Amino acid sequence: xxxxxxxxxAGALLFxxxxxxxxxxxxxxxxxxxxxxxxxxxxxxxxxxxxxxPAERDDNEDAQGKDx
Amino acid sequence: xxxxxxxxAVCLSYVAFLFLVAFAAEKRxxxxxxxWLRSPLVYTLALSIYxxxxxxxxxxxxxxxxxxxxxxxxxxxxxxxxxxxxxxRKLVRIGRTQRITSIADLISSxxxxxxxxxxxxxxxxxxxxxxxxxxxLQSVTLGxxxxxxxxxxxxxGNLEPTAVWVAAGLALFTIIFGTRNLDVNERHHGVVMxxxxxxxxxxxxxxxxxxxxxxxxxxxxxxxxxxxxxxAIAEWRxxxxxxxxxxxxxxxxxxxxPRMFHVLVVENSNERHxxxxxxxxxxxxxxxxxxxxxxxxxxxxIMPEGSNPDxxxxxxxLAHDREGLALLSFLGGFSAATSMVxxxxxxxxxxxxxxxxxxxxxxxxxxxxxxxxxxxxxVLMSRRLTIVALLALxxxxxxxxxxxxxxxAMGIVSFAGISQLLPALVGGLFWRxxxxxxxxxxxxxxxxxxxxxxFLPSLGAGLVFGESTFNEGPFGIALLRPQALxxxxxxxxxxxxxxxxxxLNTTGFVLGSLLSFPSPVERLQGASFVNVYRYSEAAxxxxxxxxxxxxxxxxxxxxxxxxEAQQLFERAAQAQGKRSYLPDVTPAFLEKLExxxxxxxxxxxxxxxxxxxxxxxxxxxxxxxxxxxxxxxIMEYSSQLEAKSVELAHTARQLxxxxxxxxxxxxxxxxxxxxxxxxxxxxxTSIRSFSEILMAGGAMxxxxxxxxxxxxxxxxxxxxxxxxxxxxxxxxxxxxVSLNLLxxxxxxxxxxxxxxxxxxxxxxxxxxxxxRGAEAIELVTDPDRLxxxxxxxxxxxxxxxxxxxxxxxxxxxxxxxxxxxDFMDNGSGVPKDKQSLIFEKFARATDPGRAGGAGLGLAICxxxxxxxxxxxxxxxxxxxxxxxxxxxxxxxxxx
Lengths: 68, 895
Description:
The structure holds two protein chains of two kinds.
Chain A lengths: L1 H15 L9 H42 L1
Chain B lengths: L3 H27 L9 H8 L5 H14 L5 H11 L5 H10 L5 H8 L4 H33 L11 H20 L10 H30 L2 H10 L9 H17 L1 H9 L5 H19 L1 H11 L9 H8 L3 H44 L8 H26 L6 H12 L3 H9 L5 H23 L8 H6 L20 H23 L4 H11 L1 H4 L13 H12 L1 H14 L11 H15 L1 H12 L6 H76 L5 H32 L8 E4 H15 L6 E4 L1 H4 L2 E4 L1 H18 L6 E8 L3 E8 L22 H4 L5 H11 L3 E4 L7 E7 L1 H5 L1
Parallel strand pairs in B: 2-4
Antiparallel strand pairs in B: 1-3, 4-5, 5-7, 6-7
Helix pairs in contact in B: 1-9, 2-9, 2-13, 3-7, 3-14, 3-16, 4-11, 4-13, 6-7, 7-8, 7-16, 7-17, 7-18, 7-20, 8-16, 8-17, 9-13, 9-14, 9-16, 10-14, 11-12, 11-18, 11-22, 12-16, 14-15, 15-16, 16-17, 18-20, 20-22, 25-26, 27-28, 28-29, 29-30, 30-35, 31-33, 33-35
């Protein structure tokens, strides 16, 4: 959960990084931005799986409880 | 070249297809098959209404003008979604527990259903959205222009007729789409489904164009990068202030835009969909923007100088005679624009109808003579009118801004305006101390500065502000120049406006909150928002602005009971001519229901409950006080009832005892009558027979005559004694006795009584033991009457004590307030079952013949002791018959 809270901060830092660059081309900069973007999406994907896994387990247990 | 008519036909059939999709989705939803419609995929795709005509057409134009800066618009939302756990999850949870219908509803709910705040937020949203709708009109109009005959020759001014048609068409389309039915939760399955389809279309179209550009024109990835390096935007010229501000603006707008809020919160059916959207929507944004730069650079390279980069996605395929691709691309842009207009209009019209029209209408309705009408019709009509008005406003902005501005620039004006809601929104979610005053102050300041420094200047010089205002400030006040407030010059206009508006907005919000004092209800509401996870397990609150008959029924059932509530609703439905069990929620019905509920829970409570459900009224502290008062009254009343019922039970018990006593007395009276006639009859019989013998004369000895005469005499005496006793008793019972109270020594009275009993000449084997030391007590009483009681008790002992050597012990004790005199013999005593009867008239413990008394003695004793202020009682457990006489000793003290 703490990771989920930190992820947007990490994203903001990643996207702020190009600000301090000098003498870079749009192509390289673009590749960096989209690369960072992709990494962020991947991290969010992994995290979201982990975050909802406990909730889903609870739900399943609830359903089983009702069946019983 | 594609003909304009063909294009129109394609558009219309596409719209018809969307209608079919929406219709099918609603059919499925009506049948309860919402599983697929409510999947995280559809939710994520629906979120893509963030990508409008601005994204589809404008992003390429933006990239062609300012390079990579365009991505900020997508990086902001990416950060928000990646951080869903912190803000979005809370927002969605609150939206569900409070039944929020729009962002205006959320803010006005957080700050205690403040109607003014709701109206203000609505107004702000409407004004802020104008450039945005204008943007869509412009993008679609530009698209049509590309395909219209003689495109290049047409000057921009002639676009306006097309724009009018586009606006009218979009209005009609939205009205048919979004206001066909009135769903209380403001959820629209059909619309969401259609938007999801449009999301797919626009993504496919843009990706198709992108692939064509990269692989078809540029010739692969590597050469694309070369083209970029060689292009006009190859230079890395990031303006760091704009980069940061725009990222922030996009993130803020993503949360605050009414249409985004609608899809994110109102249409959300499951919090877990957020988890999917947290990576899937950034991925969508990634895909949609990844080809933007290639398209822009290729467009810049191959299109003639001065052509509009906003329509490169159309003109580049057309330049290569790819008409099919251009058509798909046009449909993508059309999808992007229409879906934005539809959802934005639905969200805004909901806000307008719930926060502006309904309150006014409800107020007017209260006026006497006003037609009650139907809430639904008013709501639907107001929403339709709002949609038309919104598109008209959008067109007006388009008209006044000249239709020549870059698409992205128009969108950013909107973003900056709607972002003014952010401090009140986020503050309301995370800060309990945020108050209505603070929110209103911040919003007002932010809105005014945005209007002054960004919105009005965006209309261009000459319309509201003249050139001189820009250059020298209004009335020559340099400090108030719209794009250089407070003398700070040289900032980018956007950065300048966002900086000042957000700074003053936040400052006003914080200071206003700190300096004002929240009302109790506001504190409660603040807590329920900030701590939503703690409270959300409880029953959902009623925040819907239109009460659903079902909600009302659920509430009424809790109060009135199931059968009665259902009957009430059914009858109301019949009265309205409906066949179902649920009536329409008309004011008349609400009034009726409120009256009915008031009968059960009190007026204030009923009013507050209905008010909560209908959203027409605010639960004020006054309402809560009334509720508390009513509750207190009810509690007092019930405690009174309880006391009364205890009293009643007590009285009933007394009555029952009295009744038992009366029955007993009646039996006693009968027994008394038969007893007395028997007692009188026996001596009379013997007197009569012996006197008859004497009258007959005949031969009899003087001894015999003497004996007979004595019998007659004895019997007469017995009769006299009996009658004396009866008289005595009757006098005593009627209270006509006069007591002769004198200071008396118990010892003297006992002496007299014992002397008298000795003289009676009955069997005096009885030996009396006394405690003379204790008997020397003086008290004020009637000595003759007391002696009578003593004689009676002693005589009883003489008569009934069945011991071999009968003994009587007389014991006198002095207590604090009473003197007790106990008479205890050593006989067998009175059997337990008779102990309660011996003081009754004619009651005799043993068979009547033996004692020869009439059984009135102890009854007389009891009456006398009563009169003397004392009592006589049988004292069980003393090893024989025992009586206790209690006399008050206070009289002696008083004497």
